[in-house]
Design brief:
By secondary structure, the protein is mostly helical. It has 11 helices and no strands.
Length: 257
């Protein structure tokens, strides 16, 4: 991921410098710094979660809990959502977790055991960092155009992750990684840049709480890809989860239109 941010920053910088430039507005500096620290915290806690538990447990909790925490942060800074908006977020969050459940492990006892795993704690930590950097980015793009601010996001991620990534014991393997996986890293860097840029533009159009909830749709897409590409089951529990997500996002879309 560090190489992804590095390649994205360098490549996009060549496009940005002769066009829009890379000026960061003074008022965006503090939100940018808060966001950068939180982004680094998100990457580290998510990686720790993956070390402890399965992707299908950690990622949905991370993305599913983030909208609720974002609503709380946004409310502290004066953003008030209508009841339908809050209801839509809660429906989508419930759908996220139902989508993550295995069809063979979906009893209340299984759900309780999943939430008590150590990986779940790391996932909740990453959700907290998602909510923090999302609210911070929401303030930053008020003064700095998203097309410029995204370059600073990649720079901040690269800088604040350096102490964790470039420890002496990892240097040799890090260099080996860019040599063996440079094409995948470039592809991931471009994809991450475009997707995050879309998020920053969305922050200018609607509530940060809705944007963070919309990003959780990645869990639904992952479930669909699992069925189509990996031939996984999509039984009643996941159908219910998908329906709740769609209903929740419909409520949010109605309010945002």
């Amino acid at each position: 991921m560090w190489w992804m941010y590095f390649v994205g920053m360098i490549g996009y910088g060549f496009i940005l410098l002769p066009t829009l430039g890379i000026y960061l507005a003074t008022a965006s500096v503090l939100p940018f710094l808060v966001s950068s620290v939180a982004e680094a915290g998100y990457v580290i806690t998510l990686a720790k979660g993956y070390e402890q538990s399965d992707l299908t447990l950690v990622y949905p909790i991370s993305r599913g809990a983030a909208p609720i925490l974002t609503v709380i942060w946004a409310a502290l800074f004066g953003e008030r959502l209508p009841l339908l908006g809050i209801f839509g977020i809660l429906l989508a969050v419930a759908g996220v977790y139902l989508l993550s459940l295995s069809e063979t492990k979906s009893t209340p006892a299984d759900v309780r055991k999943s939430l008590l795993r150590r990986g779940s704690t790391w996932a909740l930590g990453s959700a907290l960092f998602i909510s923090i950097y999302s609210v911070s980015d929401n303030f930053a793009v008020v003064w700095t155009p998203p097309a410029v601010y995204i370059w600073w996001v990649f720079l901040g991620n690269m800088v604040f992750l350096m102490p964790f990534v470039w420890q002496r014991s990892r240097r040799k393997s890090n260099v080996s990684e860019i040599k063996s996986s440079w094409s995948k890293i470039c592809f991931a860097g471009a994809g991450s840049l475009v997707s995050y840029l879309a998020v920053l533009f969305a922050l200018r159009l609607t509530s940060v709480s809705y944007v963070v909830t919309g990003r959780a749709l990645s869990v639904l897409f992952a479930a669909v890809f699992g069925v189509v590409l990996l031939k996984e089951r999509f039984g009643p529990m996941r159908i219910l989860g998908a329906a709740l997500m769609i209903l929740g996002m419909t409520a949010i879309t109605i309010l945002g239109s």
